[in-house]
Amino acid sequence: MKGTVLYEVRDDVAILTVDNPPVNPLSDGVRNGLYESIVKAEEDSDVKGIVLTGNGRAFIAGADISEFGGNVEGKSLNEVFRKLEFCDKPVVAAINGIALGGGLETALCCNYRIADINAFVGLPEVNLGLLPGGGGTQRLPRLTGPSEALKMMLTGSHVPAKKALNMGIVDQISENILEDSIEFVKNIASETDAHPKVRDKNDKMLEAKSNDNVMVEAQAMAAKGRKGQFAPGQIIKCVEAAINLDDFDEGLKKEGEYFLECLMHPQREAMIHIFFGERAASKISDVPKDTKIMDIKKAGIIGSGTMGGGIAMCFANAGIPVHIIDQDEENLKRGISVIEKNYDFMVNKGKLTSEQKDSVFGLVTSSLNYSDISDCDIVIEAVYENLELKHEIFKALDQHVKPEAILASNTSGLDIDSIASITSRPEKIVGTHFFSPANIMRLLEVVRGEQTSNETLATIMAIGKKLKKAAVVSLNAPGFIGNRMLFGYTAQANMLLLEGALPHQIDQALESFGLNMGPFRMMDLVGLDLGWRARKLSGKESPLHAKIGDELCEQNRYGQKSGAGYYNYSEGSRAPNPAPENEATYEKISSENGFTRRDITDEEIVDRCILALINEGADILSEGVAQRAADIDVVYINGYGFPIWRGGPMHHANALGLEVVIEKLEKYKEITGSDVYKPSEMLLKLAKDGLKLGEAPSKEERKEKLGFEMSSVANNF
Ligand SMILES: NC(=O)c1ccc[n+]([C@@H]2O[C@H](COP(=O)([O-])OP(=O)(O)OC[C@H]3O[C@@H](n4cnc5c(N)ncnc54)[C@H](O)[C@@H]3O)[C@@H](O)[C@H]2O)c1
What is the number of structural domains in the chain? Predict the structure, then answer.
């Protein structure tokens, strides 16, 4: 059994300490230990009260997710919670650190809660496609009122101790948690035999009975922040039950039923896949665990544009001083003022106090002079996407920045090895591909060059964690992981337009599938002119899928930036309006290229775009560009708006069944005649062996079987 509960009597108080490193989840050993310790304390007539706390930095971090789906050994959580709630001696939860999910639910079964000043609490089950099924949906609303409880449960947010006190979740906060809790329980035990239970607090439920707004607001919140997800609706139903059922145990029963429905729902599996996927992604199979990690005390950024500013904010937010260099004084001034505006916006929204803003913005310095970054431990370059320019910059960085520092590039697709070859420290060169806006988007693609050292990689993965990013390693191959997949996906969206579908139909079909933003809205946002200009410069004929976009650019329709692209935009607005005037262009380009426009179903739209992602993802995996199938899912969910509840394109393929995926690919290959739908060898092989993506042989075996070599990846992005 995993974990235990330490038992000690001090001063007539039983101290129960959950001990299950590193964060004390409620594994079988902990549940049994809690049950037995409560019995022991009850039976000891000298014990006047009980203090329940956690060993180390956590109180109880939650349920043991690794037990999901398996047979549960020993006492169930419900048995333990009942024992705790009906204990005949007063129990104080001494919340010494994080109390999340089952951890907070444990505390809610105690008579009193005292939290360490630095602790925080939360019910984040929604992030795993679940609801707080240990009574959380019934007890939390009784303390905070249903509106606040719903906000907490639907966002899954962590609430710091002081706020938890204001919300009524804890009774006191303390800087001396164990001693204060012992003192408190001794006193209260001597004063009274009647100790409050959360289940009996009904006043806030009665108040809410006559207020329909609470549920309407919660529904709106779920629809906005958790589009397409199953668990939020279940959480709302649980709180409705808490309000409307007079018997607390009836409410608990309902919660149990709704919880089970979440547990059996495919979204739960998809979301837990991503939870574990993000943790696995930070491990690099051939980099030893004990690899030295450099201490990053100061960061430098080259280029104060869109990306440079956002990346600088990431470092400052993590408490790391950051110095920005630009060659252009005006650009630098503008870049710094954008950063300040972003922080001011957070202050206005109540996300930062002005003191916090001053302190975090105070970590950002800037100048035009490379000598000011000589002492940085890492410098990230974020200038224009031009290899010659990047070569120049890395030469200068190599000269000016201390030799042990890491030099990274934010390039979206240039060759990291070529950049490394310009320097005298190729082992310190790495790609750090942040996504826009860098201070908000979670994805960080870490591009591993031929000579990037283990120490450099391990350090970057550690920084990724510090900056709260989902960091995923990609080999240095064209388009890395995400943009290579995106390329095939948008090309198919464009082909569908050429064949007869309209942008808003394609966008709506894919948004209904769950994507945050359809491909044409996205292309309008990024700007159609970037690709058009590059194609013009190359002097080559544009590929079929780019023909319509190019024609729109010829008409000065560049996307949002020019107020018109695939859609029209009113001045100052980002909302897309239909552009019927484009339809003549679509007709013309289709017919010029031999297409008779036809009606295309939403099913074909979704199939063709998503299959393009899946097939390319399988190739990326077989080539070893991504380490694991789940890494590809983490990339697509955190960087490209793929719905988390579908678990990413690779998980989605597994859920459909690889046989079905191959059948569909073959069907669309027949319809379109395009090699995009020629099933990846990886898919064929896995399906033949009855395996799923993610159950592939090791990378070395894959290379041997498929004969992959880095140099064989054509530079076709
Ligand atoms: N914008 C995005 O969405 C995005 C996303 C991911 C990656 N990227 C990549 O990030 C990099 C930067 O893109 P951006 O959109 O932030 O560019 P940007 O045009 O917004 O900013 C570039 C900045 O670099 C400065 N600069 C140019 N040459 C310089 C030099 N020699 N020394 C110092 N500063 C110099 C410019 O003055 C400008 O302020 C590019 O490689 C791009 O491909 C961009």
Answer: 3
